[in-house]
Amino acid sequence: xxxxxxxxxxxxxxxxxxxxxxxxxxxxxxxxxxxxxxxxxxxxxxxxxxxxxxxxxxxxxxxxxxxxxxxxxxxxxxxxxxxxxxxxxxxxx
Length: 93
Known about the structure:
Blueprint: H1 2-60, H2 82-92
Subcellular location: Mitochondrion inner membrane
Organism: Aspergillus ochraceoroseus
Region (Disordered): 54-75
């Protein structure tokens, strides 16, 4: 009977060690996934900030009046003047 008890102790010890290792391994996997998700979110926010800075710089940059006679040729710009643009194009021809 002493041998059977020793085997049972060994089995349960291995089971407990396996459970502890499983919990540790799962927590390390979960932590890695959370870290990767946080890194992706940080990179996304960096891209958004860089894009916003570029848009702001483009919006607030002084317009070069020497080219095109001061006419804004971007139709997306809020200061775009169709009449002035058409006059400029007519003058080129």
